[in-house]
Amino acid sequence: MTQLCLILLSISLFGGESVYARGILPDVSNEGIVHRFSTYKDVALFHYNLPSELSKATFEFAAFQNRPDCPSIWIITCIQHGSYPVINPDNGTFAKDYYIKRSELDCIRIPSAYESHSNSLYPVFNPLPGPWFTVSYISPDTPTEGKLSLLKGECRYSVGSIGIWNKADNIQSVFLGDQTLKTSSRYSYFKILVPDSVPHFKIILSNCKSLVKDISRPWFKEESCVELAALRARAVPFSYDQNIDQQFALNISTQDVVELNESRPFKSNAYYYILLISNGKISIDLKIEYGNCGEPGLYGETQRNWFLEEKGLVWNANKTSGFREPEAGFQIFHFPENDPNDHFLPSAALVLDSPDKQNCVSRFELTRIDEGREFYTVFLLQGRRWYTNWITVRNTEPIFTRFDINQFMDLGATLVIHLEVDINKLSYKKEYSVLICLSHNREPMISTDGMMSCHEDEKTILNVNDTLGNLYIPFPEYGAWFLGSQILSPSEEMSSGISLMVSLDVRLQPCGYRLNEKSEDLCGPNGLCYLSNDGLSHYSACKCFSGYRGWTCDDATYAFSKFQQVITTLLLTMSNLAFLPAVLFAMYYKLWTQSLAYFTTMLFSTFYHMCDEEAQEKSLPHSMDSLCNNLYVNNEVLQFCDFYSATLSFWITIIALSKFNYKLVSFLNTIGVILIAVLVQYNRTGAQVFAIPIPLGLFLLLISYGIKGKSRGRIVKPNTRCLYFMIPGISCTLFALALFVLIETSETYAYVHSAWHIFMALSLCFFVPLCKERTKNEKDLILSGVVQTSCSEEVVHDSSTTTQISTISNALQTNPSPLPRPAVAKQLE
To answer: Which residues form the EGF-like domain (predicted)?
Structure first.
C-alpha cells in the first residue's frame, strides 16, 4: 500500500502528465483492505468532505493485490453524497415500505493488480458540497481461492483513492433585493443566501447591456447579450442541461425580461448560485421577489390557529384567547411572565392579510431527544411546556413537520417513521385517507388546487381501516427532512373542514425496522444487529444466518430448512466432545498443562459454534443470548479464542513430545503463546495460523531427537510402542488437514468441519501417552542407559539383566547416595 501514493501521484488526472510537474497535490487520500461481501462490515469505507463552490471533483481509485500470482479480480466501488451507500451485492430483497432512493449514487468496477499502472477515474462536475462516501468490496459471486493455494499465502486485496478538487473562481455574493450585476469574464458566478422562512422566490433578469464585446466571437448576433442564465441550489450550475434541479434561460437579448421561479426552495439556509455566460463583459439588472412565512412552530405568525393540548396539536380557528399550551405543563424554557406570545390575544400582531402569508403552510419542527445508547433518538413536537407526537391533519391544507439528520452522528442508523390514525376520535361516516409525503431538504410539493403531490416512492397513504403506516430509510442522508400530511377528500368537500388526529412516531434506531428494546431482535429471528466504528464513521447493519439474506434478513430464497439448521448446530457443537478423551488421558498422566489446553479448546469451540449457529434462532436463554451478542457479534472474542486455543493445543503437545528439560519447555511454551496470539490476531482464518507454528514445533522435535542421538553416539530409532501411538496420531492429523484443504467449502462446512474436530481430537488421544512425564527413578535409569525413552530404539534384556535392573531400581529408592552412574552402567555390562 505504500506504493499507492507514488503511483497515484505520478499519474495526472488531466492527460497523463506528472502531478508533480503540474504542482497539484491531492486534497484527500484513503486506503483500506477489501473483503468478499457477506455483511456491510466487510466493506472498505472512505469519507471525503467536499468544500462548497467546486466546479469539479475528481476521485481516482487503484486496487492492489499482495502477490503477483494472485488472480486479478474486480473491486466494486460505490460512491454517494450525503450518507453511506445503500448497496445490495447479494441481490437480497428489502423489506416492505423501505425508502432506498438516493440523491447521488453510482458504482464502478476497478481491476486489481500487483503493481497498478492504470487507475480508475470518477469525475463529478459541479458536485454538491459536504460529505461524500465510498464503499469498496469484492462481489460475492467472485470465484473463491482454493484452500490448497492458501499454503502459498492468502491473497489479500486493497483499494486506495485520492481526491482533487477544482474550485470555481470569483463567485460574487448578492443580497435579496434589486441590484445590477456586472460580469468580469465569460463565465460569471453569483450566489444568494435564501433563509428558511422564504416559501418561494422569483429572480427577474432584465435590461442587459453589453459593456465590452468579445471580438473573437463575431458570429453572435448584435442583440444577443447573455447566452445562458442558470439557477441552481447548493452547487454551481451547469452550462448545459443535466436533467437536475436547475433552471436556465437561453439567448437573453437586451430587450428580454427573464424570470427564474423557485416554488420549493431548499432549506437549511441554502445558497442559490447564478451562472451567466456572456459574449464579453455585460451588466444586467437583477430583481428578487420573495415571500416570507415567518418562523415555524407554535408561536410563529403562520400558526396562530394552532394550540398544543393534552391530546396533541390541534387546530381551532374560533379560539381567540387563552394559553397556547396546557397551563399545568412543565416549564422547559424561561420566558417573561407577560410574554405576549405565551398566549393568544386579539391584539397580538399576527396579521396574515398579505398575499405572501395567504399561501403559507403551517410548519412545525420536531425536537430530537437522544437516548443514552448509540443510534437511539426520538423526535417529538415540543412547545414550552409540552411534548407530543399527535397532530391534527386537515383536508383544506397540509401541515408540514420538519426534523434534521446530523452528519456522522445519525448516518449509520435507520430512520423509522410509524404513522397511526386515532380511531377512537373518528366521528365521520365516510372513510377518508391520509396522504403522507416525505421530502428531503425541501418541503413537499403543493399543486394549484391546494393538495399535496409527491412521487410514488415518497408517499404513504393511510386508510382509516388500516390506521397504521410505515416508512423506513436506511442510512438516511443528512440535512432537513419534511413530512407533509393532508386528508384526501373529494373537491366538493374541501371547504367542509374535515380533520383527523394522526400520530407521527419518528425515531432513529440501529439496523432494521423492528421496534424492540433488545438490539439482538432488531434484525429478526434470522440475523443479529451489530454496530461498527470505522474511524469517524459509525454504522449499524444486520448479519444474516442460515442462508437468509437482504438488508434485514427477510429474504428466504436460499434459506436452510429448520431440520438443516438443527443438524448443523448439533454437528458443530457435539463433535467437540471428541476432545473429552484427550482431556481425561492428559489428566490420567498428570499432564495438567495439556489437559487445560484441550479443555479450553473444547469449551471455546463449542461456545463459538453455538453462538454462530444457534444464537440467530433466539432459542438460547436471555443471559446466553446477551453473552453471545457481546462476545461473538460485536467483539469477536469467541472466534479468537477458538482458533487460538486449538493451535496452542498442538504446539504444547509437540513441545511435550520433544522431552526437553523443564526450563526449556516453559520457555518454548511461552514463545508459542506469544507467536500464536500474533498470528491469530493478524488473520484468524488464514493458513499462517497453522502453517507457521506446527512446522516450527516439528522442527524442534527433530532437533530434540538429534541431540539425543548425538549424546548416545547413534541414531535414535522409534521403538514398537512409539510406532503404535505415533502412526495413528499422524494419520488422523494428515486426514484432518486433507479434509480442511481439499474438501471443506461453504456448502459442506458443517459436515467437514465436524469431522475435522473429531480427527484432530483423536490425534491428540494418540499423542498424549507419549507425552507422559517420567518419574525420578525412570529418569535415573534412562540417564544410566538401563532403559530407553518412550520413542527410543527398543532394548532387549535377558533375565539376569532384568534382575539387575530391578535390584538397581530398588537400590535407587532406598539409598539416597547411589553409585555413580558410570559404575552402575559398568555393573550391567
So the answer is: 514-554
